[in-house]
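$ run holo --ligand "manganese (II) ion" --emit tokens
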Amino acid sequence: MASGEEKRRLTILGSTGSIGTNTLDVIERLGGRTNFEIAALTGNGNISLLAEQARRLGAEFAVTADEERFRELKDALGGSGIAVAAGRSGLIEAAERDAGWVMAAIVGNAGLAPTLAAARRGADIALANKECLVSAGSLFLEAIRKGGGRLLPVDSEHNAIFQVLENEQRHAVERIILTASGGPFRTKSLEEMRHVTADIARAHPNWSMGLKISIDSASMFNKALEMVEARHLFGLRPDQIEVIVHPQSVIHSMVGYSDGSVLAQLGCPDMRTAIGYALSYPKRCALPIDRLDFAKLARLDFEAPDENRFPAIGLARRAMEAGGVQGAVLNGSKETALEAFIKGRIGFLAMAEIVEKVMDALADLPAAVTMDDVFAADEKARHTAAGLIK
Ligand SMILES: NC(=O)C1=CN([C@@H]2O[C@H](COP(=O)(O)OP(=O)(O)OC[C@H]3O[C@@H](n4cnc5c(N)ncnc54)[C@H](OP(=O)(O)O)[C@@H]3O)[C@@H](O)[C@H]2O)C=CC1
Ligand SMILES: CC(=O)[C@@H](O)[C@H](O)COP(=O)(O)O
Ligand SMILES: [Mn+2]
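-- output --
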């Protein structure tokens, strides 16, 4: 930042998670408190980390989503002058504080309401929380448009596409190709996957991420959500969205144009590149993190996804083709099934079976007119999925 320039005011929703801590790392590498003011930080269960972050970065406001942990957070920040709140209303208050850039990094549908609140007041939204677009799609985009802020994709695949998609060439986009690592079970048989535990499923081969997205990568539900996310973000038809398994996670995604060209963005599997891009956009920042070493890499591999072993991909295509609230149904039922898998109540393969059954049961739900319809569809999907779990 040149001297005389004002500090940038930021809020990080989900600062204690994997994306949240990477965001704070980028901010600190770019000058920390010298260049940035932190309007608000939010977390859920990790009170000690939230308090430590708020003190370290001089945040004005710290919020835990867990109402029962309010006193604990208040005590941890005693004497600091940092304002404290808890619960859903606290999250909304954090999102509504006057920060020009908001990182949306709460996990799951819990991130939708606060991210919407930030979008409605016109903040630039750095979107890691893919569930906002999967569940609320065009209504979420409309909130961004009406608010007047920018939507800056952080999910590595969508950030890659955002980097190589020139606005003047959008009419010539033929397809986008989302890369997928294939997860820890890329070469496993259905029979081997049937008996895996959450601890085995969470071990991603390339990326260090939160528990839920790591397991979603193993089932390829992460890629399923990303297909729906990409459809909304880039305004494409379902048949323009392809998935290719690329086990090294070095090509983060690609855009195919009408002249046969394919443009890709490459980098180490490190989310700080995507976060730094969203933080500096439309400029680029200087980030001292690892660089790709092509000689060491030697090769890049590709294979078609196996939809028999990974039915999530077909379920995403079905949700995209049906449109309406089917994204919310896909995500809500998946979140319920995922929580049941993490608790050991259902097996790994049952997650996709449950989502499919819920999509069958709720295929006729009408399209959403308001956000309340989206929340109602999400609730119905969770309730229906819970009914299938003994
Ligand atoms: N991790 C990654 O590299 C990537 C993540 N994403 C997406 O980014 C989002 C965040 O993922 P990730 O950082 O891995 O997740 P984590 O689980 O690591 O972190 C989630 C954050 O949300 C908070 N949180 C948890 N539950 C709630 C709740 N009910 N209400 C409010 N806040 C809550 C957590 O608080 P606490 O920890 O204090 O409990 C934490 O701050 C997800 O949508 C994910 O799909 C996308 C691409 C890559
Ligand atoms: C880093 C990121 O964006 C994740 O969504 C990642 O892509 C997960 O890897 P999979 O390709 O295995 O789902
Ligand atoms: Mn991703």
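-- notes --
The first strand starts at residue 8 and ends at 13.
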